[in-house]
TrEMBL record:
The chain crosses the membrane at residues 6-24, 36-57, 63-82. It comes from the Bacteria. The keyword Transmembrane helix applies. This is YeaH/YhbH family protein. Keywords: Membrane, Transmembrane, Transmembrane helix.
Length: 83
């Protein structure tokens, strides 16, 4: 199986599992479910776009690496703001 297909399979399975967990667990209020749904949908769409761009051509691989680097920096900054 190609690496690209494995990434897409991972996204599909984990997205379904995450949404089922949100809706069926009963631990979360309606507001938390909606915000979780929006967050995970955006995160998975971004992941699929990055995988698509990475395998599209060589120059796009650099864009993906820079995009991931920017996401990493944002995550670190938000982590330190949150604590």
């Amino acid at each position: 199986m190609e690496v690209k297909k494995i990434h897409y399979l991972f996204v599909g399975i984990s997205y379904i599992y995450t949404l089922l967990h949100l809706f069926l667990s009963g631990k979360y209020e309606q507001e938390d479910i909606v915000s979780g749904f929006v967050f995970f949908t955006c995160a998975y769409i971004l992941y699929v776009v990055f995988v698509y761009l990475y395998f599209k051509s060589e120059p796009l691989k650099k864009i993906v690496v820079w995009g991931l680097f920017i996401l990493f920096i944002c995550s670190v900054v938000l982590f330190f703001i949150a604590i």
